[in-house]
Each structure stands twice: as C-alpha cells, then as structure tokens.
Amino acid sequence: MPASKNLSPGLVRLCVVALIAGVIIGFIGGGFRWCLSHLDRWRADMLDWVNTLPGPGWLIPIVVTAAGAIAAAAIVRAMPLASGSGIQHVEAVQRGEASPPPLLLLPAKFVGGLIAIGAGLVLGREGPTVHMGAAVGAAAARQAGLDDRDAREMQTSVGGAGLAVAFSAPIGGALFVLEEVAKSARMRIVIPTLVAVAAAVACSRLVIGDGSDFHVGAVDPPSIVLLPVFIVFGLVTGVMGGVYSRMILGALDLVARFDHVPVVVKAGIAGAIIGALLAIDPLTAGGGDTVAQKVLDGGGLALPLVAALFLIRFIAGPLSYAAATPGGLFAPLLALGALWGMLFAALTDAVLPGQQPPLTVAMAIVGMSALFGAVVRAPVTGVVLVMEMTATTTVTVPMLAATAAAVLVAQLVGSPPIYDLLRERMLASGIDSSAAPSSADDGPDTGRNT
C-alpha cells in the first residue's frame, strides 16, 4: 500500500503530461493526414491531366517526384535525424542508446514527410507521425521537469499516439508501444500511453473525421476447415517477410556504396524512377492506401495487374526508403500484404475451387497482418492494427493462426525484426538527436541513410 501511495502522485503527473502531449500530436498528426489526403488528390489530378497531354507528358510526374525527393532529402541534410521512419530512433531512445528527439525535428519531419509522400514515393505516413509524437512527448517531458527515465517513456508513449493517429487505430497504437518499443507493461508506461493515445485520436478525428481507414463490406468468416490453408499462407508469408527485410537493407547498402554521390542526387534518381512508375500506373507508387482499398473492395483488380503491382511495389518500397527522405514502412507493407493475400486466394481457388464465401477479402486482410508480423515482429500489434483499420473481426482466428505462423518462420529463417536492424544502422552511423549538420553535409553523401 505505501508503494502505491508513493507511485500515485508521479503517475498522475505523467498522465497530465501525456494528456497535453497527446492533444498536441493529435492535431499535428491530424493536420499531417489532412494535408496528405489533399496532396494525394492533387497527384491523381496531375496524372489525369498528364494523360491528356500530347507528346512526352509522362516526363512531368518523373520531374515532380524527383524534385519532391530532392527537396525532402535537402531537409534531411539540415536535420539528419529526420531521415527514414524514425521508429528505430524512438526505440533507441527508449533503450537509453540515443538522446530524445529535439522539437526542431517536428517541422523537418512534417514538411519533409509531406513532400516525399505527397510526391508519390512508396513510404508510409506513420513514420513521421510516430517520430513527431516522440518529439512532442520529449519536449513536454522537458518542460515538466521529468527525470531521464520518465522522459524516455513519455516520448515512447506519445510516439505510440502518433501511430494511433496515423491509422485511426487507438488500441493498435497502444499495443505498438507495449509490444514493439517498450516491450513492457508497467503501469508507468501503460496508463500514460492510454491517456496519450485517447487524447490524440480524439483530437485527430476533429480534423479528419471518424471512421476506419478502410471501408470493408461484410466479410463472412471462412470455414474452420480452411484453417490449414491460412496456416500454410502464414508460413509462406514468413519467408516473404524475411526477403522483404533483406530487400530494405540491401537497398540501403547499395545506395551507401555510392558515397561519392551527394545524397540529394541519389534521392532525385530514386524519385525519378518512382515518377516513371507513376506515369505508367498511379497504383504502382504512393503510400498504398488506394491499392489496399481496391483489393479490399473484392475483385476490383485483374489478377495479372495484382501480380504486377505486387512485384513492382516489392522493389519500389525498399528503393523509396533508401532515398533517405522522411517516411515509414508500415503503410506500404500493409498494401503489399493485401496484394499478396489476393494472389494467394486466387491460387487457393485454383486448387480448391468453389470456396464459399470467396476468400479474396479475407485472405487480403490476413495478408496485411501476417506480412506486418513477419517484418516488424510485433504480431499482436499487427492483428489489432488491421482489425481496427478494416473494422473487421470475422477473420480473427485465421489472422491469429497465419500471423503466428509467419512470425515463427521469420524467426526460424534468421530474419531479425526490421527495426532492430535499422536501429543498429542508425547507431553505427552516429545519428541521434544531438547530430547536427556539419561542413561534410555540403559535400558528397557519407552513407548515413537510415
């Protein structure tokens, strides 16, 4: 009892700080999503306009995306910590391996993320919102005079609120903190996280409205007889997740080899390639929400196109991340999982024809969760995140079975969690919140893209 009494005042103080920081990141994250939605519509209108132009109108998306990548990379040169997802930095801070992010990271991540993702790079919005949330949490902790340990956990809690805002998934955001970042369920992190997430999502909905991210019709639960099919699907997805993680690291290593080429030039080349894909088909690039929604609509895409989109985005995602601009991995990963699920459903129907109900939508939802689990190695977060984003619970049992199988296989094949690998790269590069631009930033790139 005395221990509880001693804990309570400090816990109340943490909750007050979490509430204030949650409100702030809720409006900032909501504004970020609102701006991205308008940029997505602008990009679609631009591509429609390009298709009406005579001559080499396809050069326009190439130039626009390359320019966006260059501009975002230039922001990263001024604030190296803004590179990539930022989740690896949040984890490093939580572990005491790096300093909490400065508040100056917020505008760099906000503007850089809008430019890079809005231009069409295959990046997710959750990376910037998580990192911005961490910056807000760290700043709030400093203002409240919290000690170092509580300050680290506050940046983690509010970072989880940023993820919740990115996907309108409050439970998923909270689980992300407990399962992936803190790997702990102590009251001093659980309660502030719940407070920050609740405040952030409530405020973000004032900006972007209510409702789940994906609109999914009624999905009948697959027959329990087909559970082995979903387990096999998960096993194969685990191997695929390991390959995708290696693709991300391979792309980073490849870009880093050209250390004599300035980072903005490399970003421009990557942007030009993605822009060329956009000129061919808008679904080949961008964060992936439109692709996932079309799959979840059930049959809106022809199978040859689905296969092509899967292969292209499997490569374009790592390429975009290697450009070292602000942006995350989650959203493209979810779209890739949906495409993979649709392909496997078609294969299942060829082997076991006449399945009722059709498995397309159910397998796509399960694919989103299973691939997420295999790459990120946070299976419970993946399952709950997808359930909240799709507002669907009828495929929970297949999701659990397939995601568990995927994570097991990824573990057995020796594929470490992607953010462990990215955190190690970041620490080896010397980038943390104290990193400041130096005279070397005016010369060739030093291979610091994380």
Automatic annotation (TrEMBL):
Top-rank taxon of the source lineage equals Bacteria
Q: Where are the transmembrane segments?
A: 12-32, 58-82, 103-123, 158-177, 189-208, 228-249, 261-280, 300-316, 328-347, 359-387, 399-419
Alphabetized UniProt keyword annotations = Chloride, Ion transport, Membrane, Transmembrane, Transmembrane helix, Transport
**Broad class of where this protein is predominantly found:** membrane
Pfam families noted in UniProt = Voltage_CLC
One annotated GO molecular function: voltage-gated chloride channel activity
Which InterPro entries does the annotation name? Cl-channel_core, ClC
Cell compartments where the protein resides: Membrane
- Keyword Transmembrane helix present in the record's keywords: the answer is yes
Gene Ontology CC terms: plasma membrane
Report the membrane topology from the UniProt record: Multi-pass membrane protein
Listed PANTHER family: CHLORIDE CHANNEL PROTEIN (PTHR45711:SF6)
The protein's name is H(+)/Cl(-) exchange transporter ClcA
